[in-house]
Design brief:
By secondary structure, this protein is α/β, with parallel strands linked by helices. It has 13 helices and 14 strands.
């Protein structure tokens, strides 16, 4: 393995999990940021990969994530399970937009592959932030790498048995079942859905994009409503007015998406983002915010599978994890002028999406699909009305 190797446990996963790695069918590059191999695991052809982003400079992180996308695509095309170990993967406040854009691509590829029947098992190691933990929850199953004082060989042995058992088990939990289960968990930790509803006048730039209709704020800043644009009804949802993304907000955004599609599948959706970051209180962590964000990402992905367009419009800031959850599978992501400060490094907003000096680089890096400057307003931005399933 060339360059800086991952931790001993993580580095041993590639060779130790496989019964018989295929000769020459392996790779390790990008200064130790990614290692992978194809071979047999409990009698099945599999790919095992380890990603450790903090081991490499930014350009190699992007290259490693792009290679990971290819591995995911290969797993989908060849119907070969992928076991992905994620360790030491954090999005620092000054991380280039190219890295965030590449991670967005990995998340989208993972969800798309599973929609087409691919098996992906995620192994979660140490040193992962909220955004990378969301990634580990996008697989059909997630396994925590055992820690403790046992020897590496003992832990690898237990991990190998767990992975083999998971490969024999059912792959995924249906979206509706997971949606109900997460609602019960909210109630179990004492988190109630907000009931206060008030008219929304927080985003005039959003209202200017439509002809008529209504939109309201539920609780501190959860957007809900329906507006009309050139005769087309559009469902509005999102997190605005500087509200933080917590488990309740993530669940309610997923609920808005699912409800809209079941009631009016012909409607495209606009998901607005103007948030002060991802919540990090003890109650948010006890409810497992990362699982709610992964569920939101999967709701957006499910919408695409139903040929419903999800337009994400960024009007301000957003936590890195919530931004990726909303945009990974979105049809189109647009940054409005107000996103100039929101996308830059924000010391006051933990995990905020990092920006770059040139807004055009956001498009080049895959962070967003379009940027709108002041000269483009009050004109109307492009609205995707239908997605390819």
């Amino acid at each position: 393995m060339g360059g800086t190797a991952p931790s001993r446990l993580c580095g041993d996963v590639v060779s130790a999990l496989l019964d018989a790695p295929l000769a020459g069918d392996r790779g390790a590059d990008f200064s130790g940021a990614l290692a992978w191999a194809h071979g047999q695991l409990s009698g099945r052809n599999c790919t095992v990969a380890v990603v450790v982003l903090e081991a490499a400079p930014a350009p190699l992180r992007v290259a490693a994530l792009e290679q990971l996308q290819r591995l995911i695509h290969s797993a989908q095309q060849e119907a070969r399970p992928l076991v992905l170990c994620v360790e030491q993967m954090r999005l620092a406040p000054d991380i280039p937009a190219s890295c965030v854009g590449a991670l967005r691509g990995v998340m989208a590829a993972a969800m798309r592959a599973q929609e087409h029947g691919a098996r992906i098992l995620m192994l979660a190691g140490a040193g992962c932030d909220l955004a990378s933990t969301v990634l580990t929850r996008l697989g059909g199953q997630r396994i925590d790498i055992p820690a403790g004082e046992d020897s590496v060989s003992c832990r690898i042995g237990r991990l190998r048995e767990t992975v083999a058992d998971c490969l024999r088990a059912e792959a995924t939990v249906p979206l509706a079942q997971r949606h109900r289960s997460l609602l019960h968990r909210l109630r179990g930790v004492g988190m109630e859905l907000p009931r206060t509803v008030r008219p929304n006048n927080a985003l005039p730039a959003l209202a200017a994009q439509f002809d008529e209709g209504f939109d309201t704020l539920v609780g501190p800043g959860i957007l809900r409503g329906v507006r009309v644009r050139e005769g087309l009804e559009v469902t509005l949802t999102g997190l605005i007015a500087g509200a933080r993304m917590d488990p309740v907000a993530a669940w309610m955004l997923a609920e808005s998406i699912v409800t809209s599609i079941k009631a009016r599948p012909e409607r495209p959706l606009v998901l607005a983002l103007d948030s002060s970051g991802d919540a990090d209180a003890t109650v948010d962590e006890s409810a497992l915010l990362s699982e709610y964000l992964a569920h939101l990402a999967q709701a957006v992905s499910w919408a695409r599978s139903q040929a419903v367009a999800i337009n994400v419009w960024a009007f301000g800031g957003a936590g890195a994890a919530s931004f990726l959850a909303c945009t990974a599978a979105a049809t189109r992501v647009v940054a409005f002028p107000e996103a100039q400060s929101g996308f830059g490094p924000q010391p006051s907003a933990r995990g905020a999406v990092a920006g770059v000096s040139s807004r055009s680089a956001w498009v080049q890096s895959g962070l967003v699909d379009e940027v709108v400057d002041e000269s483009g307003l009050p004109g109307r931005v492009a609205l995707a009305s239908r997605a390819l399933a």
